[in-house]
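JOB MANIFEST
job_type = single_chain_structure
chain_count = 1
residues = 415
[input]
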Amino acid sequence: MTADGSLPNVAVAMSFLIPSRTLRPADDPIFALNAEAKARAQAGERVVNATVGSLLDDEGKLATLDGVNEALHELSPQVVAGYAPIAGSPDFLRGVALDLFGDRPEAKMVASVATPGGTGALRHAIANFLEPGQSLLTSSFYWGPYKTLADETDRNLETFEMFTTSGGLDTEAFHTELSRLVKKQGRALVFLNSPCHNPSGYSFDDAEWKRLRAAIEDVSAAGPVAICLDIAYAKFGAQPLDVMLDAMLPIANKALIMFAWSASKAFLEYGLRVGALVAVQPEEEERRRIQNALVYSCRGTWSNVNAGGMAAIANILLDSTRRARIDRERAGCIELLQRRVGTFNDLASKAGLRYPRYDGGFFTTVFVKDARAAAERLKADGIFVVPQPGALRVALCSVAERDIPRLVEGLAKVA
């Protein structure tokens, strides 16, 4: 303030943001590409939009499940309008455990909270199992928001080389990087995304899961290792979740095994924002501590998750008749997606595209040298994909089967 009581005329620009937040990008790059693709399509251009991970039918409409829609419409206004418990509704959490484990004993050994989609589960894992400044470990191909979540919580992200030269999962690289990270920071948190890895489409096979287990078991002797299994797309995989469970649950007494569960993909309800973080912990006192920490994090971020969404999903998960109906309806969506997967695999192999084993899921990844340049060339031709280091993510979930030949032809030109 000046001598006469007026505010000074500040010539130098100042920012009210703290320095670490001043250069944030304005939008998620995937959603920005999707918006551009939609704008060009609305202007009359014939566009192939393979960007956002939402399942569309072959007419471009969002695929939904009638059984879920009915469950939502049956809810009373009081349920929809009321606050949910901070940890999530007990019925919902019980339903998630049933969906994950069935009658396995681990269903009764969990600390769990409801989260806004799988993203919220991943956020809680980072905030509670890494100190600020420490690094999350994941594969070299990964869903971009993993890094955003780490950055937003003042953590870092490091990777292990995902694929061997022969195209399989590089479990030796995983073992090396996990060991290095535990030695460096005294603990580790790992995100593993399978079945139907986003963005590559790769699903770890039984032998790969067992080698991952052996590596985790070995390194866990040196410090706490938490493994968060991102299973957002598991319902759409050719491989049952039991393959992962049989491999990983036996080490739940040595490493913390967690699941980022999401209704967004499994129930095709992206806007409900209903998910859960489920941690398996056989030791009761440690389980109590984990539960308390997760509930505290809920209160300190979003407070509660969508009450109506949890109620509808719980009503489905805990009712065998409703569950069976949803399974049948989902099977139709899986069949729709598998036709696209089969068509893509047939045409892509003939075109000589290089991409990981792809047997199901929303995405695949095509390897290219200069991904950004390749994506720009494709965009000029009306084909939208997501560039990432060394590859292009292709969301077949949103591409009509009739457009796959054009998509593959475009990819072949830039690969």
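[summary]
The longest strand covers residues 256-262.
The two ends are 61 Å apart (CA to CA).
exit_status = 0
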